[in-house]
Write a structure and sequence with these properties.
With about 190 residues, this protein is an all-alpha fold. It contains 9 helices and no strands. About 70% of the residues lie in helices and about 0% in strands. α4 runs parallel beside α7 and α5 runs antiparallel to α9. The longest helix is centred in the middle third of the chain and has 28 residues. The protein starts with 7 loop residues before the first helix and ends with a helix.
Length: about 190
């Protein structure tokens, strides 16, 4: 956001307004006019700073999720993934899962939103997971040629989607912890 006139605090307020509206009305019904009204700014300012609704929404999501997985290093893969799970709570997981479900549906119809989600949210997360896994390989915890390594992000995203679909229950930390220990670690040979 080169040349922004927003302070970090003001930017945080604006992102909170975006996410509040997104949770209330969903991506398709969210408008820049509504964001501008809630955030007490102009629509022109929003477009000047973020360029599009998709970019603004994804930046707000990224700001709300400041966990940098590549910085988590407890000395073991088990410790790293358990530490990552401890960084959230069940209410947040439920909100994030519902929000991402709606965004994934919207992204299937919007190339702009899909591309923004991939570049600013998904890729940084998968890069962080890759960093955790590379350290595990370097420590000898996981074989470098294990074919499951490339599918860990798929497994984790699948767990989030499948629980709701199969059990009609939101994801919580206990489920994710059990899933990681029962599915991900065995697939990696840990």
């Amino acid at each position: 956001m080169a040349g922004t006139r927003f302070t970090p605090e003001r930017e945080g307020e604006l992102y909170a307004a975006v996410l509040g509206l997104l949770r209330e009305v969903g991506y398709d019904a969210l408008t820049m006019d509504a964001v501008a009204a809630r955030a007490h700014t102009s629509k022109a300012t929003l477009y000047r700073q973020w360029g599009s609704k998709a970019e603004l929404v994804v930046r707000a999501l990224r700001c709300e999720k400041p966990v940098f997985l590549d910085e988590v290093d407890t000395g073991s893969l088990r410790g790293d993934l358990d530490a990552v799970l401890e960084m959230t709570d069940d209410d947040r997981l439920e909100q994030d899962t519902a929000l991402m479900r709606g965004l994934m549906q919207a992204a299937s119809a919007s190339t702009e939103l899909h591309d923004a989600l991939i570049s600013q949210l998904i890729n940084p997360e998968t890069d962080g997971v890759d960093a955790l896994l590379r350290r595990a390989v370097d420590r000898g915890e996981v074989a470098g040629d294990n074919p499951a390594l490339r599918y860990v992000p798929h497994m984790m995203i699948g767990a989030l989607a499948a629980r709701l679909l199969i059990e009609n229950r939101p994801v919580d930390r206990a489920f994710l912890r059990h899933y990681v220990h029962s599915v991900v670690f065995p697939a990696l040979g840990v």
